[in-house]
């Protein structure tokens, strides 16, 4: 099973709301990623977790707060977002190559389409 | 900077015609290279990958790609395109010995005419 699931599929929130995005995989992968993708653009890396520890934060604003409660689950907590944060948020996972770095092959979820009003 | 480049923003082909999408890389060592496809509003699906070995890589959905070190290229090909192939295609790569987190090209939008 090479599936990464993401919920919800769509999310509309106001700038004062607090919401969370959820990502789950059961492939035994120990590296998990959050990406942000604007229309007609490639995905931009936001965060990387390796063995449930945050290992990369690509200078993402603090209104985005990631969490990795266990090896199968990755959350992205959202608070006080701006309209420019509207985008497709993609989760991915991979087997980390502990001897040489992170990725073997990344498997992506379908994404959450976020609209901030 | 180490990266991949997709020179074509859009490619238009007729259904049944052959397809080649270009990807060039700039990594010092042998890179790890990937092709992903993304349908509108969907996530990215891996088509194929190259890590080492045979330079002609077969993927899913009838796609293949050829790693050419002399040309720093990893072009994606398909002999006969179907209307359902219309999508955004991303080439991605990372350098062996680095962080192994791929960077993505800007994408090529494939339009298929009936």
Largest sheet of chain B: 6 strands, mixed
Question: How many DSSP-defined strands of chain B?
Answer: 12
Q: Please report the distance between the alpha carbons of the first and last residues of chain B.
A: 40 Å
Q: What is the residue-mean pLDDT of chain A, rounded to a whole number?
A: 90
Number of helices of chain A: 0
| Structural class by helix and strand composition of chain A | mainly beta
Largest sheet of chain A: 7 strands, mixed
Q: Largest interface, per-chain counts?
A: A-B, 26 and 25 residues
Binned, the helix content of chain B reads under 10%
The termini of chain A sit apart by 36 Å
> Which spans of chain B of ≥5 residues are poorly predicted at pLDDT below 50?
none
Shape of chain B: globular
Tell me the quaternary state: heterodimer
Structure, explained:
The complex is a heterodimer of chains A (117) and B (114). Chain A is mostly beta strands and 117 residues long. Chain A is built from no helices and 11 strands. Chain A has strands spanning 4-7, 10-13, 18-25, 31-37, 44-50, 53-57, 64-70, 73-79, 87-94, 107-108, 112-116. In chain A, strands 2, 4, 5, 6, 9, 10 and 11 form a 7-stranded mixed sheet that branches. A 4-stranded antiparallel sheet of chain A has the order 1-3-8-7, with no helix packed on it. In chain B, the strands form 3 sheets. In chain B, strands 2, 5, 6, 10, 11 and 12 form a 6-stranded mixed sheet that branches. In chain B, a hairpin with a 6-residue loop joins strand 5 and strand 6 (45-50). At the A-B interface, strand 9 and strand 10 of A face strand 5, strand 6 and strand 10 of B.
């Amino acid at each position: 099973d090479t599936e990464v699931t993401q919920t919800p599929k769509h999310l509309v929130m106001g700038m004062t709301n607090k919401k969370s995005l959820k990502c789950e995989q059961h492939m035994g992968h120990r590296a998990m990623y959050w990406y942000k993708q604007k229309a007609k653009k490639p995905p931009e890396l936001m965060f990387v977790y390796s063995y449930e520890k945050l290992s990369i934060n690509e200078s993402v604003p603090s209104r985005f707060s990631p969490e990795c409660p266990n090896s199968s689950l990755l959350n992205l907590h959202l608070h006080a977002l701006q309209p420019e944060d509207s985008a497709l948020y993609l989760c991915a996972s991979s087997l980390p190559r502990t001897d040489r770095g992170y990725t073997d092959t990344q498997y992506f979820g379908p994404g959450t389409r976020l609209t901030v009003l | 900077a180490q990266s991949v480049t997709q020179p074509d923003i859009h490619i238009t082909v007729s259904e049944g015609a052959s397809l080649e999408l270009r990807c060039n890389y700039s990594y010092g060592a042998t890179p790890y290279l990937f092709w992903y496809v993304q349908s509108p509003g969907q996530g990215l699906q891996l088509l194929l990958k190259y890590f080492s070995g045979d330079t002609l890589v077969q993927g899913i959905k009838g796609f293949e790609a050829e790693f050419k070190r002399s040309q720093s290229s990893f072009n994606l090909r398909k002999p006969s395109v179907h209307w359902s192939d219309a999508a955004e295609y991303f080439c991605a790569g990372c350098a062996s010995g680095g962080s192994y987190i791929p960077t993505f090209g800007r994408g090529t939008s494939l339009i298929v005419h009936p």
